[in-house]
Specification:
alpha+beta, Endonuclease III, domain 1, Nucleoside Triphosphate Pyrophosphohydrolase, 2 domains, 8-stranded mixed beta sheet, 14% strand, elongated, binds iron/sulfur cluster
């Protein structure tokens, strides 16, 4: 670590952060509550999602499932329906499983004990610490993307994110800072500073409350050193929008497996060696649907997931018939939003096929 203007002093840095937070914190809906369940929902939603995007989903989710017990009692379809459009659906499924476990093991009360919280599905060290510090006032640290950026700069940590040595240093610094009064506010102050001042590019150092302790300021824009990139794997898929007319309805199947598992989607499969028309017919047959299918796709699209780049050719099949069952449904296109948990990708596929 290089020398800073002032030597590292967790107590003084903490005081400066709390003063700044009291004056500048945004009034986000989950900041008005100490309910551990609401904080849990907000933290899961804000992972990999911008705060502005998450707010309406958070409000809808809590209106529909106001307590752990309400969420636990809901079906997975209902949960995914309310989550629909927010992406990263695994988060929703794990949150749902976590709620069921809280009801089954802890009588519907999110556990105060940190180890018990950490053992819940989908709750890692970050989420456990956020719930513990904000809802229960426990001195538990958090390190998310924003906090990692602030601390890597403040402490001039020049090893790449993801390396054990880096993670150890970040968590140790976060633990030193949170070990004092108002741990929930302190953790949120670090996150807020990362979101509003110590931003990825062009950090606003002159208005930063901890500038005088910042060892990394001269090289701030090069920190944190990113983790080595893994290339997104390209996946070729065919999707078939099989419709019936008047009113316009579409056949959806509930997907199984890693890619959008649990969500409702049009029949879709990875394109193998056969020509596209044959692959599309296989996708329909696997779903149990009979329909008139053209030889060529109606359009194509790409869709980026965290580790995959999907390239889809989209077919439109008409006059489709099948026997509905628990994992196959004929749904009115107009009512899709209120009816099912469908992914953003499915909406994009429908746009291509039905435009
Ligand atoms: S001084 Fe600049 S680089 Fe350092 S923590 Fe503040 S905003 Fe970030």
């Amino acid at each position: 670590m290089a020398s800073a203007t002032n030597p590292w002093d967790p107590q003084r840095v903490r005081r400066a952060l709390l003063r700044w937070y009291d004056a500048h914190a945004r009034p986000l809906p989950w900041r008005a509550t100490r309910d551990p369940y609401a904080i849990w929902v907000s933290e899961i939603m804000c992972q990999q999602t911008r705060v502005d995007t998450a707010i309406p989903y958070y409000e809808r989710f809590l209106a529909r499932f106001p307590s752990v017990a309400d969420l636990a009692a809901a079906s997975e379809d209902e949960v995914l329906g309310v989550w629909s459009g927010l992406g990263y659906y695994r988060r929703a499924r794990l949150l749902h499983r976590g709620a069921r476990e809280v009801v089954a093991r802890y009588g519907g009360q999110v556990p105060r004990d940190a180890q018990a919280r950490l053992a819940l599905p989908g709750v890692g060290r970050y989420t456990a610490g956020a719930i513990g510090s904000i809802a229960f006032g426990a001195r538990e640290p958090v390190v998310d993307g924003n906090v990692a950026r602030v601390l890597a700069r403040l402490r001039r940590i020049e090893t790449p994110l993801g390396r054990a040595v880096t993670e150890r240093a970040l968590w140790a610094d976060a633990a030193a800072l949170v070990d004092g009064p108002r741990p929930g506010a302190l953790n949120q102050a670090l996150m807020e500073l990362g979101a509003l001042v110590c931003t990825p590019s062009a950090p606003a150092c002159p208005r930063c409350p901890v500038e005088r302790w910042c060892a990394g300021r001269p090289i701030a824009e090069t920190l944190p050193v990113p983790r080595p990139k893994t290339r997104a794997r390209r996946l070729e898929l065919v999707a078939v929008v099989a419709t019936r007319a008047r009113p316009l309805r579409v056949w959806l199947e509930r997907r199984d497996g890693e890619l959008f598992g649990g969500l409702w989607s049009v029949p879709m499969r990875e394109a193998g060696g056969a020509d596209l028309g044959t692959e599309a017919r296989h996708a329909l047959r696997a779903a149990g649907i009979r329909a008139r299918l053209p030889q060529t796709p109606r359009g194509e699209l790409t869709h980026l997931l965290s580790h995959r780049r999907l390239h889809l050719r989209v077919f439109r099949a008409t006059g489709a018939a099948a026997t509905p069952h628990a994992d196959l449904a004929l749904v009115e296109v107009e009512r899709l939003a209120e009816d099912r948990g469908v992914s953003t990708l499915t909406r994009k596929i429908l746009d291509v096929a039905l435009r």
